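Journal club side-thread
Mid-discussion, someone asked how the predicted structure for our own chain would compare to the paper's figures. Pasting it here so we can look after the session.
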Amino acid sequence: MEKKDLVIVESPAKARTIGRLLDGRYVVKATMGHVRDLPENKLGVDVENDFAPQYRILPGKGKIIKEIKTAAKAAGRIYLATDPDREGEAISWHLVEAAGLKDAKVRRVIFHEITKPAITKALKHPGEIDLRLVNAQQARRIIDRLVGYKISPLLWRKVKRGLSAGRVQSAALRMIVEREREIENFTPQEYWTLSAQLRKATQELSFTAELVNCELRSQAEAEKVCQELENSKFRVARVERRSTSRQPVPPFITSTLQQEAWRKLRFSASHTMTIAQQLYEGLPLGGEEVVGLITYMRTDSTRVSSQAVAETRAYIREDYGPEFVPPLPRLFTKKVKGAQEAHEAIRPTSIRREPEMIRPYLSADQFKLYELIWKRMLASQMSAASLETTTVGVEARPPAAEKTYLLQARSTKVTFPGFLVLYAEGKDEEEGEETSLPLPELEEGESLLLLALSPEQHFTKPPPRYTEATLIKALEQNGIGRPSTYAPIISTLLQRGYVRKERGHFKPEDLGIIVTDLLKEHFPEVVDLSFTAQMEKKLDEIAWGKREWIPTLHEFYQPFSETVERASSAMQRVRLPTKPTDEVCELCGRPMVIRQGRYGSFLACSGYPECKNTRPLPIEARCPRCGARLIERRSRKGRTFYGCSNYPECDFSVTSKPLPQPCPYCQGLLILASSKAAKCLDCGQRVKLEELEASPATL
């Protein structure tokens, strides 16, 4: 009997999809992610022996490795089909080492999309594990471990237990903190704008022109100009008409997908990647058909296969008409320096799989993200939009003044919509919305009548706080992180309590500011943006085979270890600031303040040490019985639970942490059910935490 071939992937969902697409000659197994890593309870890197990593089998993965070894012995050929990036390459390498699969029959295959043609083609052209990618990933993991295990204990001793410092997360935190300080130190400057409503004597249609050749810094200046303009003669000084074209943007890469999903859908980066993973791994589309809907979602390349381009252009010609198809296919150059051009952009596996066609088989969020990806890909191969911009210059000459005032009006109209019939890229809040009102037909030299003057006071604004979209954009522009790291960076900053979200914007906590200041003082390289970007470049060079990984580790560690040694003696202990509250100490009548302790925040008397009264800090959630605040308590056995602050009048309590957000189904109390989901105490529905984070009500 002919032996079956074994295909190994990471996730069970991906394994199920591939198993249905392949015939009975294949067995598909999943590793459930990484199988080996550095140990959790120690450094796990032998710095005296060329940074030899001391890998350990991850808890719970022994059984999986045993099952794969058993399947491998019975298999004909073994195909390692983990994800097509450095992380996936490293997972394959770790599996080979852990399961002892060093055999000529073990080959590496790459699935950029989970469709039958792509899988069949990949299996016909297997290769080897790319050790350059593996070594780049090892170097990243070891450097991040050295930074975390050398700096984090210092922060524990000098600030608070449980803190962490990461090479990339610390640079991102610095950006948020420095933006906050820009806002705090910003001094608004007053200025005025002046617009005039005008019309021709022979027409009723009016238009608005803005004063452009005079800066107004005060109300007095604005009023003076208004007085002169009220008696001025207005005439059309010039009329310019210019035809322009607007080109479509490239299909998505990881960073632009995360940015656009935030702008248009208000999805967090982590939620976007979770949904994209589901679309990539495959979903049932009725009956037995399960297919991957998009190509791999961790990519920094805008390249698209010629086959996909041809299919897209044919679809556009059939559905929109030949005038919407440019003469030549659009080829997008790589957007990100160092982009892996072997990858493709994020696109639908088939442009003919229209969003509405598969909507019944997708969740609401899956549909929204798929539609966004589908439209972006389709628009990227459509004709440019043609626009005509008319600029009118208006001259105002006061009777007794030497100065002539110039005003300007501009209007843009679309003469051919091109790709704009389908898709226009979203804008960040600070970019504002474009408005364009139509202008009447005007000729140079024509006289105009003044209908009204509108002076308006303004103040310059500080730079806005970062949103998910603008932070990812800034990280990418500064070369910090890579496609797979943007979402974890943001999640870590929130989970560690370094930053919080206020209406969708990141605001640093006191803890985040203190940690940033300490790192800037004692570890300037760790939070230096250019240093972090240079390290990413070196890791890229390792992946390209242009640099050796162990010498790179030596190059990094020597100055870093000296900095750690100096900081150990120089860093002073920092006491976290207290925050005033409206609570009053029941023992001495002094106000209570919020302090940070080993196990989190708590209320303490401001009269300490004379009065040592403390009590739990109320949390944001409310008691579902009486509406009072819930507080964190500890049982006699030291176990944490959450009870009503009106105890003993109200004895409501739960052992899982309550959440401030109400249940989206019945408005009941939500409690944490796992690290990824909450459960409603009233209706029993489970809600993903990512969905709560992404909902506008909690942003």
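Post-session note: The radius of gyration is 31 Å.
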